[in-house]
Amino acid sequence: MNRTGSANGGRRPVVAIVGRPNVGKSTLLNRIVGRREAIVEERPGVTRDRKEVEADWRGHEFTLVDTGGWLSAAEGDLDGKVSRQSEQAIGDADVVLFVVDATAGVMADDASVAEMLRRSDTPCLLVANKIDHSVHEPLIWELLSLGLGEPYPVSALHGRGSGDLLDAVVEHFPELPEPGAESDASRPSEADTAGEGGGEADDDIISVAIVGRPNVGKSTLFNRLVGAERSVVHDLPGTTRDSIDTVVETDLGPLRFVDTAGMRRKSRIEDGTEYYSLVRALGSIDRADVALLLIDATEGVTHQDQRLAERIDVAGCPTVILLNKWELLDAEDRADVERQLGRKLEFLARAPVLKVSALTGLGVHRLQPVLEATIQDYHRRIPTRAVNQVLRAAQAAHPAPGGARVLYALQGASDPPTFTLFANRTLPQTYLRYLERSLREGFDLGSTPIKLRVRRRSE
Questions:
Q1: pLDDT digit string (tens) for 85-115?
Q2: Distance from first CA to last CA of the chain, Å, rounded?
Q3: What's the CA gap between 410 and 209, in Å, rounded?
């Protein structure tokens, strides 16, 4: 779990929201952070993985963890894994919010969760949810039978009582200086705070999104990469409903691995939950620095794999292709999959391809060196003189039609490498692709996207 320092110093406290399914845990998380971070629907089982978001209340920053519904008699392997995720969140937390649907009274699973929490040393606040009006407040007294103290009446949907609840939450945090009360000696210097503000420090962490169709092994790979059972893994397609991320310290520095929901064609999306899962997954791709496109090698490169690859290509982030379940293929099938890659993903021809098994770990160790090279190319800065030498040679070999030519060029930005070309007139798109290829080959930029911006001399 990533517990970075808070603005007040020290590590950021962790607050876990737990309870049985469909009591309003995700709605409460969204209310606290003030935006729709967690997917919410009026049916149980929408949340399955632990989801962490950053929150603050009156200058106190903390990590808020949403969990799937806890079931004492978990029906099936998937429900058991979801329940274990909740138990692990309780063990990692500094404060637990135990959410109960006050309108439904005390259910058997509520009592089981309460019994587990009473054995825990972690401070626990009992949250009586769905108290949408003062006339409903008498309902909370039945919850005293859970043995966790006086309940806090709230309406996660409407925000009623959430401020009083958060006041109680921060009282359980470790003692920290009041915001703005630190001495000059303890206040960070300008050098320490350069680049901070609005989460920019976190933005410096390389984000690696794991993308693929449903049930190709994304969560299994994610758990192997982060070294923990962080996402629920099951052979039921669509187990992951939201994008889950974890920051891992590596030899390359901190990397943020993001497990995304499996993406299908819009015509195959069956409900609102799956639609929001798709939206979150697409957002993770747009924000990613590197995308790992996971393909089930036993099924070959499908049409949907092609569509996902196109979507990643449009987002402009480097791509690494992982052929999962490679150990299950014989020599003939392996050759067929490699032919499919060259034919169906030709536009990603420069992307590195790794044959792996997320389940057994086969070949996964080769991912880090590939990521290192990809990230280096993504951050690459090329001297202006070298850029112009390559472009002059390219133009000498194949001049542009109609007397058009690049007079001067420079790299204006990185992440990805972006070049500004000053030309005497408009350059055809086909010639720009030729210049892009010349720059890529001249500086060995691999699969990293390149952006070209053309400015006319008159501009």
A1: 667 777 778 899 999 998 888 888 888 888 8
A2: 50
A3: 30
